[in-house]
Amino acid sequence: MRTARTLMFALAFVLSASCAFASTLEDVVTRGYLKCGTHIAAPGFSTVDNSGNRIGFDVDFCRAVGAAINVEVKYTPLTSKESLPALQSGEIDVLSRTITQTMSKDTTLGLDYTVVTLYNGQGFMVRKKLGITKASELDGATVCLQTGSIFELNVADYFRKHNMEFTPVAFDKQPAVRTAYEAGRCGVHTTDVSSLAAQRSLMKKPEDHIILPELISKEPLAPVVRQGDNQWADIVRWTIWLTMAAEEKGITAENIDKVATETKDPEVQRMLGVTGTLWKNLGLDNNAPIRVIKMVGNYGNIFDRNLGKNTPLRLERGYNNQWNNGGLIYAPPFR
């Protein structure tokens, strides 16, 4: 009897848990649009163009997921403090914004990180005219930074570790840090490198400032979903991995129709839904991958369009190159 009661209790728990987590895919399809949470204004990552359209690196991954499901995307601009609670409460379906994946966030907040879309790290920006070329030359510097952030701790640890001194000049918000640095209140601006590039692009003379090559922390950025809906997490993951695999295979928005009809590569055939049921197994249709690539291109296209050397941010690929080109971008096999 005790065993029977235990089994009945376990079954009831499983059923109640499954009811608690309604299918996000079903909700999105019924609603007719994907709710994407993203940054309020971060050049290169999430901003609004002159036509009122939201554009950027983080935005493109939401556009990709929307294309996979074949629905439009509506954006909810969020501050750092608002972003995770908005996802937890169901206000948004996916959070695609500059959020670092950490163990505590991943394991204690009821959230799941999907795929790292940008390997980032904290760095330093200085004026070119100072002639500084590496972080070891910053002994005695005055450093502008955001108070209460992990970057404040990182920079203190870095200078202590290297037996150097510095004077912090702290501000509550990142725009104030940039303004103080640009006004000459400090000689160094520190935050993660992608944010440094974004802040530099907003300065009066961006070309007067350089980002030093050293990274003093690891800040992997990845879109986030709620725990408990494995199908939804898999849809987001494999949509992102599709863009990465497409770059590896040389597939773009311009050539995807030709590739889909002419390729003899069995993996590409499966990846593009020409053969097999990989995408149907996710609850999507076999045209999903072609819609995604036509919408946003491959990972390299997304990076170059928003963050690359021909954009105001002028970021090098670095760690965000393909695995077979010295980077960390690596998609699992489509089989």
Descriptive overview:
With about 325 residues, the protein is of the alpha/beta class. Helix content is about 40%, strand content about 15%. The protein contains 13 helices and 14 strands. It has helices at about 1-20, 25-30, 55-70, 80-90, 105-110, 150-160, 175-180, 195-200, 230-250, 255-260, 265-270, 290-295, 300-305; strands spanning about 35-40, 45-50, 55, 70-80, 95, 110-115, 120, 120-125, 140-145, 165-170, 190, 210, 220, 225. The chain has a 5-stranded mixed β-sheet with strand order 10-9-11-8-12. A 3-stranded parallel β-sheet has the order 4-1-5. A two-stranded antiparallel sheet has the order 2-3. Strand 9 (about 140-145), helix 6 and strand 10 form a beta-alpha-beta unit. Helix 9 (about 230-250) crosses helix 12 (about 290-295). The longest helix is centred in the C-terminal third of the chain and has 20 residues, at about 230-250. The chain is globular and about 60 Å long. The chain starts with a helix and ends in a 29-residue tail after the last helix.
Q: Characterize the overall form.
A: globular
Q: Report the radius of gyration as a whole number of Å.
A: 22 Å
Which range does the strand content fall in?
Answer: 15-25%
Distance between the termini: 45 Å
Q: How many individual β-strands?
A: 14
Low-confidence stretches: 1-21
Q: What is the H-and-E element order?
A: HHEEEHEHEHEEEEHEHEHEEEHHHHH
